[in-house]
Amino acid sequence: MAKTVVGMFDKFSDAQAAVTDLLSSGFDRKDISVVKRQDEATSTTAQGRTRDRTDAGDVDPGTGAAIGAGTGAVIGGAAGLALSALGGIAIPGLGALLGVGPIVATTLGGAGIGAAAGGLAGALMAAGVPEEHAQYYVEGIRRGGTLVTVRASDEMADRAAEILSRHNAIDIDERATQWRSSGWTAETATAATARTTERRDTTRAAREEQAAIPVVEEQLHVGKRQVQRGGVRVYQHVTERPVEEQVELREEQVRVERRPVNQPAEAATMNRAFKEGTIEVTETAEIPVVQKEARVTEEVAIRKDVDTRTETVRDTVRKTDVEVEQVGSQQGQVVDTFVAELARDQRFRGRDWDTVEPDARRAFEQRYPGNRWDQFKDAVHQRYERARAKA
Questions:
Q1: Strand ranges (E), the chain
Q2: N or C: which end of the chain has fewer CB within 10 A?
Q3: How far is CA 348 from CA 331, 345, 352, 366, 371, in A?
Q4: Cβ atoms 35, 75 nearer than 8 A
Q5: How many CB atoms are closer than 10 A to CB 37?
Q6: How far is CA 241 from CA 60, 238, 244, 313, in A?
Q7: What does the pLDDT look like over 358-390, one tens digit per residue?
Q8: Is-contact 75 41, C-beta < 8 A?
Q9: Can you give the pTM of this predicted structure?
């Protein structure tokens, strides 16, 4: 299944480099589109090449060939794709465009299409781009950007996106947020384009519109956002507590004691007795010494356990259906007659359309040979459902 990969570039040189990289990576040039506004420089060149377009003949922009070789050379360059100068074909709100590739062929292939306000956005949506993003890309072109689109297979789509990103493709959602902050909205841009279209269409024949019935279909978009569900707060405090330890201390005391002695003095004693001298004895004692050592005895680790779960979101979406009936037509009369027969047939009473349809088809083809069931089926279905609702 083919996908469309889109990139918007502020600089045309970046878009050229991206296209060159795409071509060298094996992408087919007929699958690559480039669109930009015709600036003043390329406008001058395009005006100078008007005669070339007449002489050479117009070339289908979808083929990638230039309409006007001179302009193509100036704009195409090393990208390998010459952009067709669409001088004289203006898109309301955008001005004259230069472009090449399937998007251009779809949107700007004819002069009449050039005046359609939603042509470019419509071509992008037809290629699979969401409507909101298509509006963003059109606004980016209006502000001077260059749009590059690539049709690629599922296997090559990621490669194409990587190449565009490598060459400075902008984040279109982020850029649209910046535009909105300055007052831009897709609605105001559409309204401005519509006003320009109205002014340009004053020469067209007036068409009287009796009624316009919008066909609306809701689409379900499921996303996700992060919410806070609680958590843990951890406090750290320092506390003190008294402690006591017993320690045994040793202490010395010197005592001097005189004792009476009566005995003859020996010679050695005599030698020491009559000499002067000093004897000193030191007392020692032990005192407690306190030293503190911090030791890690426990640690508190904080972590988060992350689990993923799949939740099925169920809702209902609505869609409006418009039934077109030719008043007084033979087809309407056939449908009315056949549905009345179904309503009277007991076999079909209380049954839904999915179970009724095969039998109803056989009955219709037998009752009205020569009429194709496929042409009447939708009308019969709608009338049958209305009849069931009234029953």
A1: 2-9, 32-37, 84-91, 95-100, 146-153
A2: N
A3: 22, 6, 8, 17, 22
A4: no
A5: 19
A6: 92, 10, 10, 58
A7: 888 888 888 888 788 888 888 888 888 888 777
A8: no
A9: 0.43
